[in-house]
């Protein structure tokens, strides 16, 4: 089956010569959640704007459901829902009319059952007659999602959907995204929140300087690139590492009470058994041992630094 969204060697250069996209190639499968991570100015919003027809590409191609975004724009755009970063809503209009209007703009017949289902899913039904200006910031973001879903798109772009909302509402939004995925909607999410990508995405893309640095399944990415650290708490402080431990990848804390051993999860042997034997032979008495996996955030920061080098 062909991917629902296919981006091939997409480039965008603005009139001043700035290259916002430098040959991005990306296939997105039907029904998946892709998180695009990147710092400000990385090209995330330009990529979304280009796919949605807001920005005209300099070169390359994009198809949505097999429809080219330039030569078959209307058919392609009808398959896309977009939730922008900015909250730009008519303040004196009611919630339900705001969503109905957007459905009409896409040429869809009025269907109050569809609108009710969307508003109930987003916990907006009891606010359907409220004017936009009466809503909280979080509720306004829900209205943006309702508008994007009003014409029943197959692909939904969420550009920083939880920016500026509290932690509780952010988790509510994650549940909404999971429900949409269960219904078969393909979701492309841009975010600054690493935990958002870690919590809900199937794949993670890292974009910086207009280039896609990496695209991989989230679990595979962490298994391939993540490192584990063994933290060893000591019963008595060390002033320095014993000479027989100099060959180990060990870091001693300033207070001398903690050793940190970093090892590669991909290797057949971790070296932990040998390390513990050497510690015992050196007369080092342990108080406690714990391990931790590198987070997606640490991996992301490392990739962005590499891409900028």
UniProtKB/TrEMBL annotation:
<keyword id="KW-0547">Nucleotide-binding</keyword>
<dbReference type="InterPro" id="IPR050763">
    <property type="entry name" value="ABC_transporter_ATP-binding"/>
</dbReference>
<keyword id="KW-0067">ATP-binding</keyword>
<feature type="domain" description="ABC transporter">
    <location>
        <begin position="5"/>
        <end position="234"/>
    </location>
</feature>
<dbReference type="GO" id="GO:0005524">
    <property type="term" value="F:ATP binding"/>
</dbReference>
<dbReference type="InterPro" id="IPR027417">
    <property type="entry name" value="P-loop_NTPase"/>
</dbReference>
<keyword id="KW-0813">Transport</keyword>
<dbReference type="GO" id="GO:0016887">
    <property type="term" value="F:ATP hydrolysis activity"/>
</dbReference>
<dbReference type="Pfam" id="PF00005">
    <property type="entry name" value="ABC_tran"/>
</dbReference>
<dbReference type="InterPro" id="IPR003593">
    <property type="entry name" value="AAA+_ATPase"/>
</dbReference>
<dbReference type="InterPro" id="IPR017871">
    <property type="entry name" value="ABC_transporter-like_CS"/>
</dbReference>
<dbReference type="InterPro" id="IPR003439">
    <property type="entry name" value="ABC_transporter-like_ATP-bd"/>
</dbReference>
<protein>
    <submittedName>
        <fullName>Multidrug ABC transporter ATP-binding protein</fullName>
    </submittedName>
</protein>
